Amino acid sequence: MERLSVILPAYNERGNIAPLLEEIAAVAANLPCPTEVIIVDDGSTDGTFVEAEQTAPTLSPPLDAIVLVRLNRNYGQTVATAAGILHATGDVIVIMDADRQNDPADIPRLLAKLQEGFDVVSGWRKERKDKWTRVLPSKVANALISWVTGVKVHDLGCSLRAYRAWVLQALVREGLNHRYMPIYCASKGAQIAEIVVNHRPRLVGQSKYGLWRIFVVLRDLPLLAFLARYGQNPYAAMATAAFKLLLLGLACGLASWWTGSSVPLWLFLILVTQAGLLCLGLLAELIVRQSGQRIEAIRQSIAEVKTFKAQVGTNVR
After folding, report:
1. What pTM, to 2 d.p., does this model score?
2. pLDDT digits over 296-306, tens only?
3. Tens-place pLDDT, residues 265-275
4. Distance between CA 16 and CA 9 in Å, rounded?
5. Furthest CA-CA distance within the chain
6. CB–CB of 187/148 below 8 Å?
7. Residue 44 C-alpha from the chain's centroid
8. Which are the contacts of 26, defined by CB distance < 8 A and separation ≥ 6?
9. Which of 93, 120, 94 lies closest to 105, judged by CA?
């Protein structure tokens, strides 16, 4: 491993950035590779960018580089994560939350597991220090996604993961969703492992998630199932769906003839309409992924980039 990049998407995390950078610097001092940290300020309104800017040149021991990326407004964690990936130069990329609930002390363990031949090592917050309004939706969502996609990861909500850079570089070109990173990685053929990581209570700021996450997951389940099984062969998915609808249509036609009622046919028409809309949505997703529109939109969302290097001071570009 030649270089490590640590990406911190941050939204209104003033008070967490400075101590988190100090923790990462202490861990990086014992790693056998140079380490850069990319902080992506996702349109914060509390001075997060200023705190990062003031802390970066004062770290001791210094990191190899600190890159501060400021987005022109709040886009959400997915876009902030992708912006960080675009600026990462490491062979290995670690992504973690900026709220200090992820523990930087787990980074060496993630890297050690990665060296065993895996492409992605995902953290599992086995002992979570969150309220039930966050834990319960997460457990339900994890169970649903694991069942639908077949990707056996206990904790898809844990941001602390280590990736081979090639995996994320392939994903960011097409578009990604930070909630489902292991699913996307598995669709690219990545080998995934999981280790238990430390989870700490939030001391500063407020959580941005709640019970509504369940409804978001239910909305996204068809796409996740499609990508997990047919991401590389969408024709097979459409042909399979068409064949099943054909059989169902024949069965409904026979039921209508046998009972003398048109209800089965009406139900079938409703089902076909919904299936058609879903298929159009999946095909549109594939088209957008291949068009490069998303990566261009991410580039346009970046308002400012500052780089602090231990050897040469500050370079603004």
Report:
1. 0.78
2. 778 889 988 99
3. 777 777 777 77
4. 12
5. 84
6. no
7. 20
8. 61, 104
9. 94
